[in-house]
Amino acid sequence: MAKKYVISDMDGVIYRGKTLIDGAAEFVGRMLAGQTPFLFLTNNSEQTPIDLKRKLETLGISGLSEANFITSAMATAEFLRSQRPGGSVFVIGGAGLTNALYNAGFSISESNPDYVVVGKTKNYSFDLIKKASRLISGGARFIATNPDVVDPTEDGLEPACGSLLAPIELATGRKPYVVGKPNSLMMLIARKQLGAHASETIMIGDRMDTDIVGGLEAGMTTCLVLSGVTTREMIDTFPYRPDHVFETIGQIRPEDIP
Length: 258
Prior knowledge:
The protein has a six-stranded parallel sheet, sandwiched between helices. Strands 7-6-8-9-12 form a five-stranded parallel sheet, with helices on both faces. The protein has a two-stranded antiparallel sheet with strand order 2-3. The longest helix has 12 residues, at 72-83. It has eight helices and 15 strands. The chain is an alpha/beta fold. The chain is globular and about 55 Å long.
């Protein structure tokens, strides 16, 4: 049975930094023209859905709405709201994460917060590491938006959230609870929004350790693209395999995937 729903990563799949990947615009155009329900499910926590929509528009992809995007910041905020409504957080992260937490009813505090939440940000410093470490050692719960160690850009790889977590983990001896991919929570949120069954859905991504393993564990059909972090040579180093491998997303036609 051909797949009816699509969930796709963005970084390394649709673009690298500020560069659109070959075939990405055509892929999105086919999804919109065929009225195929799809979502971009990204571990990017720095940007809001409107930021991502506008970024794609500047790259030449139009016709999308904010409802086409779910970020790890949104998933983190929703998870924390289900755990401790109206709680307080100390945040290391970008505007997308801060906005999502505010919208979920959380206050931002450096004084005995319920949680320390870490996402990717370029504004990272020894002072933030020190504050986060002291708060976690003092009882705050340690939360991370995603585990990605590096992100692909047009200039090569750059440190991502997982790299920022490392010094805090070493300083506190604590591991964070990670909400983003490959946590099945992200996959569940996406499928509920689409109204999709796992067997009818394909997961497209460039990372074996987040997109592909998350899709496999959620029971989806997985499509690895080689336009981001993972190379063809790296596939055999993992104990699991994607269902399909493509050079770019432009080669993928969900209606042809069993």
